[in-house]
Amino acid sequence: MALLLCSAQLSCGASAASSTTLHNNLPSTTITASSPFYFDQTSQYPTPSLIDDGVLTFFTKKWSQAKSIALLEQAVEDHNAEYVATSANGIDAISYRRAIALPLDDRFDPPVGVFSHGHIYTGDKMSLPRNFWDAIMKSKAEVPWLFEVSRVDGVSSPRVAMPADEHHHASSATLSRAVGGALDFRSPNNYVFLPHWMFKALGLRPRDVVDVRLVQTTPPGSAVKLRPHTSAFTNIGNHQAVLETELKHYSALTLGSTIPFDYRGERYYFDVVDLRSAPRGERVPMAKVQDCDIAAEFVRSKDQMKPKRRQK
Question: Which parts of the chain have pLDDT scores under 70?
Fold first, then answer.
């Protein structure tokens, strides 16, 4: 399946201003206010109001908010410049970036007729800076082009505390890294725009700092087991065909993630509970789905499982 470069309906300037183990079982180092990557999320709220705040206070708050973002951007830029200067070769220099993460939204939806149209929220595609396109061309990377997004210990802010879902099962926001494909290469330098499910899986907040890397060693998948959050999906008469169609919008899968599909106006969620590689069928943390003959099966849905007892 050839990956098309789509032209997101969002300028770079507007974008910048808009909002080996799989699980990390060790406690993360807490980022401190003295770190150059520290960003106080509360500094952006509430939004200044010219009417309520008055002219002087309005511009003072706007300047303070812009300063916080500018300092974060400069810290990321400095890190990337140092990495490029010390890289072993030209390809390595452009195959990795530390980036400020923001969630994708409807402004990134490609035009009608482009494969990813209508699947900004139900796919694994991300908007990346131009250097990754250059890395693909220079390294002659084969499709699917995959990118690993990872939390950075001591740099990414503490995980977002996700509430238990409607069936009182543990949150899936426990991953330290996830893999996905490219929507386009129009993101501003030092920024990456990620699908919402990836934000949740990595426990990220808007403008958290992550590492992004072009990866070419992800094995092809041979089998995947998915746990629907509701049995309503498996009650669909042709649910297997729906699954095969919707999986085409994922270039790869990450074990432990929760991915969404849309069908007839309803959104369904699935936990990736088992993932096997070809040809040996080994359990792997990540696997390619695109251009792979992968067998998919469902396990008991969450709403059919016995809920865990809530602690009093």
Answer: 1-34, 39-45, 162-173, 306-312
Q: Where are the alpha helices (DSSP H) in 140-272?
A: 196-202, 239-247
Show the tokens assigned to 191. 């920024």
Closest CA to 75 of 50, 100, 102, 92: 100
Segment (H or E) for 186: strand 177-187
Contacts 24+ apart (CB under 8 A), 275-278: 275/221, 275/223, 275/224, 275/225, 276/221, 276/222, 276/223, 276/224, 277/219, 277/220, 277/221, 277/222, 278/219, 278/220, 278/221, 278/222
Q: Which of 156, 202, 200 is nearest to 39 (CA)?
A: 156
Judge whether 287 and 276 are in contact, CB under 8 Å. yes
For residue 137 the two structure tokens come to 């061309």
Q: In what order do the strands lie in the sheet with 221-228?
A: 258-263, 266-277, 221-228, 295-298
144 within 8 A of 291, measured Cβ to Cβ: yes
Question: Which pLDDT score, from 0 to 100, does residue 236 have?
Answer: 86
CA distance linking residue 282 with residue 268, whole number of Å: 28
**88: burial class by Cβ within 10 Å (0-12, 13-18, 19+)?**
exposed
Predicted TM-score of the model (pTM): 0.83
Closest CA to 129 of 213, 252, 60, 242: 213
Spatial neighbors of 164 by CB under 8 A, at least 6 apart, are: 170, 171
- Give the SS3 label for residue 197: helix
Structure confidence at residue 42 (pLDDT): 64
Note the pLDDT of residue 24: 37
Rounded Cα gap, residues 238 and 233, in angstroms: 10
Contacts of 24 (CB under 8 A, 6+ apart): 151, 153, 174, 175, 176
What is the Cα–Cα distance from 116 to 123, expressed in whole angstroms?
8
Length of the chain: 312
